[in-house]
Write a structure and sequence with these properties.
Strand content: 5-15%
CATH topology of the largest domain: Growth Hormone, Chain: A
Keywords: Cell membrane, Membrane, Transmembrane, Transmembrane helix
Strand order of the largest sheet: 1-8-3-6
Shape: elongated
Order of helices and strands: HHHHHHHHHHHHHHHHHHEEEEEEHEEHH
CATH architecture of the largest domain: Up-down Bundle
CATH class of the largest domain: Mainly Alpha
InterPro entries: cNMP-bd_CS, cNMP-bd_dom, cNMP-bd_dom_sf, MFS, MFS_trans_sf, RmlC-like_jellyroll
Protein name: Major Facilitator Superfamily protein
Largest sheet: 4 strands, antiparallel
Membrane topology: Multi-pass membrane protein
GO molecular function: transmembrane transporter activity
CATH superfamily of the largest domain: MFS general substrate transporter like domains
Length: 576
């Protein structure tokens, strides 16, 4: 009972944190507008294609609108790694709104369908760029892995609401006014998504400067190399692609099942898609209980399974009630994928290529959606709708089963890193860093053990590390005076690294010490590259210099007479 109450409390805290954080709130509401527009537009476009040529036309349009996205998204995603990510989101939302509004005009004036499909390609390219930029933005708005998981839970709920509201809105508008109004409402939602982000304010984490010139292919290849060179990233991306293959198939199968198999007509296609959204809403509320879990990989595997198994069962039991209930189970799987998959990617990929990694994902997603759509159409035409449902539905469960052991290992490694992040967060100069920066530091911690009585650093030494105490206690002395006693969660060594001076005090182990250390180039780049931590560090260093070396508060060099006997005062400056 107590554990259940704790889970509910963590879920409530996740929603409260998003509501209190103005930047997160704007980013999340923008996502809701963007994805409501995408789902409504997808239903409307499916109806236009079905009127033109049946199931095969729906599949071909689905493939043709996704292929350009698969090619262009990795090339455009580096823009979000080099600049302000929210500006990219504003731009792509505006482009989507304009393209969708143009499609409304064409349909409303009985213009050629080819123009509608061309505008759909433009809208889809922008849509596939939106998610990687948004996914890369979220970690910069969070401070801990748990907060990021909470943000992904909230975004998953909003994604689920969009999956429900978009098709439901389309179904209502199709029965009342037609495709033109569906497209017009989608355009308005995209415009709202852009306006929300115009005034987004946050401190971006430190990133390397943009290279001179534009090298789109080389920048895109950096994201591909990041995924290909990391087995965990490749696994999560691959499973997401398998899930999206089924999702693409469902863009065709929901229309064909509604019209040909169940006989519920065009509004029935919207109702079936809305059932996925309804299940996703319920699943997102349940997934909010997973904010504090260390088994995100396991839940991600379950989510992938639920994207396929219910589809197979619809082929075996094709009734309207069964289809609605089973597609709701697909929605639950979608919620689990959102909280598990996106959090795992955000925690595993380096921030400086994060948008490009999500760009690779979106490229594969776009390709898989198009492939799934055309495969579903061909199988349905040649072997029947029920055969298509059964065979395509088996892809995800089989892929999840094959990946189970690797995902559980990934869960264990994330748990260890969370412990290290918690240790770094307890240090004042590191506690204000955004999650991507402190996570990057946690990946490069090097453990050091020091027996009781041994000197860790000596006054006058060249500074070559920053230290954080994981366990044990240490005494700080200077000029023979006792200055402080340090314990777990406290750090030392920043003065020499940040002020390019020698060690201003001696630190000796009072008990056996277990330390985590950072090399100077990583520590200095993280602390000085982020304005809040730079200010915090400057204040802390000035205070300690006054305390440890009152005769030299400038930090320009060692205090005369304070170097260790035998130390070479002409040695290289510390921290360089």
């Amino acid at each position: 009972m107590a554990q259940g109450s704790g889970r509910i409390g963590q879920a409530a805290a996740a929603f409260a944190a998003n509501a209190r954080n103005p930047a997160l709130r704007r980013a999340q509401l923008s996502f809701l507008g963007a994805w409501t527009a995408e789902w409504a537009f997808t239903v409307g476009l499916g109806i236009v294609a079905y009127r033109d040529g049946g199931a095969t036309a729906v599949g071909l349009v689905g493939l043709l609108r996704m292929v350009p996205s698969a090619v262009l998204t990795p090339l455009l995603a580096p823009v979000a790694d080099r600049g302000r990510r929210e500006r990219v989101l504003v731009l792509v939302s505006a482009v989507r709104g304009a393209a969708t509004a143009g499609a409304a005009v064409v349909v409303g004036t009985a213009g050629p369908s080819a123009v509608v499909y061309a505008l759909a390609v433009v809208s889809t390219v922008a849509a596939t760029l939106y998610r990687p930029a948004h996914s890369a933005l979220l970690p910069s708005l969070c401070r801990t892995g748990r907060e990021l998981a909470g943000a992904n839970v909230v975004r998953g709920l909003l994604d689920s609401l969009a999956t429900l509201l978009g098709p439901l809105l389309a179904a209502v508008l199709l029965g009342w006014a037609g495709v033109t109004v569906v497209f017009a409402v989608s355009a308005a939602a995209s415009g709202w998504a852009a306006l929300l982000l115009v005034r987004l304010r946050y401190e971006a984490p430190p990133r390397p400067p943009a290279p001179a010139g534009v090298h789109l292919v080389g920048e895109a290849l950096a994201g591909i190399r990041a995924v290909a060179g990391n087995g965990d990233l490749a696994l999560v991306v691959g499973l997401a692609a398998a899930q999206t293959l089924t999702r693409g198939a469902l863009t065709v199968l929901t229309v064909v099942v509604a019209i040909d198999l169940l006989g519920t007509g065009e509004p029935g296609a919207g109702a079936l898609t809305a059932a996925i959204g309804a299940g996703a809403v319920l699943g997102s509320l349940a997934a909010s209980l997973l904010v504090g879990t260390r088994a995100l990989g396991a839940w991600f595997a379950l989510g992938v399974t639920l994207w396929g198994l219910p589809v197979t069962l619809i082929g075996l039991v094709p009734t309207e009630t069964t289809a609605l209930l089973l597609l709701a189970c697909v929605g639950v799987g979608n919620a689990l994928i959102d909280v598990g998959g996106f959090t795992l990617l955000g925690r595993t990929a380096p921030d400086d290529v994060l948008a490009r990694v999500f760009g690779v994902l979106e490229s594969l997603v776009a390709l898989a959606m198009g492939t799934g759509a055309i495969v579903a159409a061909l199988v349905a035409d040649r072997a029947g709708v029920r055969t298509a449902l059964v065979t395509i539905g088996l892809v995800c469960p089989l892929a999840a089963a094959a990946a189970w052991r690797r995902l559980r290992r990934l869960d264990r490694s994330i748990g260890v890193r969370d412990r290290d992040i918690g240790l770094l967060r307890s240090v004042d100069v590191l506690g204000v860093l955004p999650l991507p920066a402190v996570e990057q530091l946690a990946r490069h911690l090097e453990p050091v053990a020091v027996p009781a009585g041994e000197v860790v650093v000596a006054e006058g030494d060249v500074g070559d590390r920053y230290y954080v105490i994981e366990s044990g206690t240490a005494a700080v002395t200077g000029d023979g005076r006792a200055l402080a006693t340090l314990g777990p969660g406290q750090g030392f060594g920043e003065i020499a690294l940040l002020r390019s001076t020698r060690r201003t005090a001696t630190v000796r182990a009072l008990s056996d010490l277990r330390l985590q250390t950072l090399r100077p180039e990583r520590f200095v780049a993280a602390v000085l590259g982020y304005p809040p931590s730079a200010r915090q560090a400057g204040t802390a260093v000035d205070s300690m210099l006054h305390r440890y070396a009152p005769s030299d508060t400038t930090g320009r060099g060692p205090v005369p007479g304070r170097a260790r006997p035998g130390a070479d005062p002409s040695g290289p400056p510390a921290g360089r």
